[in-house]
Amino acid sequence: MNDGLLYKLLxxxxxxxxxxxxxELYDFVKEPLTVSKRGLAVADEHEPPWILLPxxxxxxxxxxxxxxxxxxxSLQFFMAAGDVFDDIEDNDAPLSLSSRYGTAITNNIAxxxxxxxxxxxxxxxxxxxxxxxxxxxxxxINSYYLTACKGQHMxxxxxxxxxxxxxxxxxxxxxxxASQIECACYTGALLATENKKVLDNIKEFGHNLxxxxxxxxxxxxxxxxxxxxxxxxxxxxxxxxxxxxGPANSLLIRYYRxxxxxxxxxxxxxxxxxxxSGALHYTAIKMEFYRLLASEAIExxxxxxxxxxKLGMFVK
Length: 316
Fold this sequence. Notes:
By secondary structure, this protein is mostly helical. It has 15 helices and no strands. Helix 3 packs antiparallel against helix 4 (65-89), helix 9 packs antiparallel against helix 14 (279-302) and helix 11 (235-243) crosses helix 14. The model has no long low-confidence stretch (mean pLDDT 94).
């Protein structure tokens, strides 16, 4: 099935789930689902179809995309809820939901999205998925998202700590970000097969794809300077802090620790230090490492007689 039709079917599934909401709540809940890479967003033809990942995995293994639609919708509700909770944590951002609507309403939006995620999963029953499998999938989703919560807690606990090691940072990425991609792949596959070898290879693919995606974002955040502006500690920053000395290192420490006078530091200076330290080059090597691992997982999946053409577009 072509991606355009899959987007249309997913949009219809999501709208069908939220139609029961009163109009005033419907509009609030719909908003976080329309942002980039969420279920009601306009598809970006220059990006892999991340929204459709569970459907693509299910279809690649020979499963029914119609059967997987409630799962895909459910994951979009859960991810949108996570976005809204992030908005609450970043309430100083002028465009955040909590800045515009207040914490109470924003909390209710996030809670509603979580409940809708549960209701969407229940719709698997209408696709002839048995109760045992529905309970299993819900338990898997909850387990992965609990892992993501642990990663978020570690991230919030560290805050802007520049002492964060590379290993600790990668552990946080694994729990907070890669777990969600792995969950999408694993649960999508589970609706098509219970073959342990295939499922293990799919999980391996999803995990490394998630790491690849996040580290790619780390590079983009430095190149586009948005992560520099926000003083966000990412892999390039961790590398640069460990490799620089003297005035360059002192400037990085003062900037990322938000010490007195840090607001007056030119972000171009920080950008130059990060570039000259080899941080972007090192992060690109890490990115290619996870791309290789994801590609190797695809080859293992292919050995089981599965058409991996659509999976391959996520690692290009």
